[in-house]
Amino acid sequence: MSFHFRPVLTLLAASAMAILIALGVWQLQRLEWKRGLIAKVEARIGADTAPFETVEKLWKESQDTEYMPVFQAGVFRHDLEAHVFGTLDGAAGYYIFAPLELPHPADEARYLYVNRGFVPQALKNPASRPQGQVEGEVMVRGLFRTPEVARGIAALVAPEDDPAGNFWYRREPARFAEAAGISALPVYIDSFGEENPSDWPKGGTTRVAFPNRHLEYALTWFGLAAALFGVWLAYSMSRR
Description:
Blueprint: E1 2-3, H1 7-45, E2 50-51, H2 52-60, E3 69-76, E4 82-88, E5 91-106, E6 109-120, E7 137-145, H3 152-157, H4 173-180, E8 184-191, H5 214-236, E9 237-238
Helix pairs in contact: 1-5
């Protein structure tokens, strides 16, 4: 048995192996990013809440403020709530985004949207959950969140929102406000649900557990590269 160099086969195999290895390295980078994200979220959700305006100022200075605990007082405008499609524990429904009227408007934005929590599809109509329509000034505690914006391929395949039907797929307060005809901040609060007087909406539903299978994916890509090397080596060897 002897080794025979095959230029075309070698070029194709080397190119494919380079791609597979690059994908594996990319997954290792994603692994480190995911570990950092998980550590950051776990550290932040256990921290003391800060005034919303304090964290908002940090956000305006381009600092990382995602998932920081905040509190803000205001009065809900239940008649202007937005319904964002989503699921909870496998059940389909909506996340209720209600504008909170601010006692001291910031930058002419009189409202701040609050994700009050999840309701089943049968409870989309506010009239079906009157006990959840808390009146008067409330103190909302929750996590500071930035708008959900689809980019790249996700933007091309994302379903279209239906502002006229108050049916949304993405969490973009600016678009909610435009449809409602009000001025609102572009960020929002994921409520802990403490201000909700009833079971619905169900607050405190922020997803803080993130799947982390990047090491598994990396090993898969590296394994495919090793398998391809074995195939190339087998074809390059011949018996006399």
